[in-house]
Amino acid sequence: MPSPALAAVPDDASTDWRAELAAVGPARDLAIARLHAFLMRAAHAEARRRAVSLGVVGPELDDIAAQAAADAVVSILRRLDTFRGEARFTTWAYKFVVFEVAGKVNRHHWQRRTVVLDDDRWAQLPSRLGMAPEESAEWRELVLSLRRAVTEELSDRQRSVFTALVLEGRPLDELVADTGSSRGAVYKTMFDARRKLRAALVTDGHIRDNTSTHQSTRRSRPRGEQMTGWHALDQLLATDPIDGGCDTGRELLDMYAERLRDDGDAARLRFPQVAAHIRACGPCAEDLEGLLHALAAHD
Q1: What is the pTM of this model?
Q2: C-beta separation of 236 from 270 below 8 A
Q3: How far apart are alpha carbons 164 and 173 in whole angstroms?
Q4: Beta carbons of 43 and 100 less than 8 angstroms apart
């Protein structure tokens, strides 16, 4: 999806950054060195923020930050002619370092992680969704219906992605790295799979069709008495038609972050496709959090 035209005029500092990086000779070299130093500070801060729960410290963390800053500089120089000033240059640059740190921290974690798969991953799904033990009969019916829909309704690729993300519980970015695909492509595959599966479960009467006023008899109990697991399943398979996907979210993240910081309601109104995507995509929501942290530190 193309970037919305904001008719923005770059601020003076952003104009200077772009002019200096587009120059030739010593002036450009100095600008690149200044950019690298600027991004090194941001990379270290973002790596520390993300590594808190991953046990990555010391020289490992320093190496990740150094690689991320260097790669972010390369990405920025390669894309310099795409900068249009819809956000400040520094925000736009922070976006690239956040992406680089995310990929490197996560990849470092995946390489050391041991995946233990249950013998029957389908049998474990209801408990992972928070189903109450007394509803075991409905568990079995749900699992059979969902399993049948996965087998009959999904393409081979959709089935593979659903199995990895839902049954095996693998992080989206880990699957991206393993398959050599893009985050946007994997997310879109899962988005389409969720939509198909939800339609199948609505047809089978397990969850409510939110597009109509009809309510399944199985969901007719008072709301306070409904199982949390049904809500979790509903949320798992829910899709928002205005969700712009990872590619749009990453493209517009700098613009969205600046406006979100100043006025959350205005940002969500201006970029509804990004807001919808952030609600549904954990990795992109984490990228946004990192960018907001960088903006707060910069300010």
Answers
A1: 0.83
A2: no
A3: 11
A4: yes
pLDDT tens for 278-292 read: 999 999 999 999 999
As given in the structure block, the two tokens for residue 210 are 């939110």
pLDDT single digits (tens) 159-188: 999 999 988 888 888 888 888 889 999 999
The rounded distance, in Å, linking the Cα atoms of 278 and 271 is 11
Cα 217 off chain centre by:
35
Q: Distance of CA 6 to CAs 10, 243, 271, 276, Å?
A: 11, 20, 11, 20
Sign of CA dihedral 24, 30, 35, 36: positive
| Contact between residue 22 and residue 32 where contact means Cβ atoms under 8 Å apart | no
Dig out the tokens for 109 from the structure.
């974690």
Task: Determine contact, residues 277/249, Cβ cutoff 8 Å.
Answer: yes
Q: How far apart are CA 75 and CA 93, in angstroms?
A: 9
d(Cα 104, Cα 112) in Å, to the nearest integer? 13
The 10s digit of each residue's pLDDT in 239-286 is 999 999 999 999 999 999 999 999 999 999 999 999 999 999 999 999
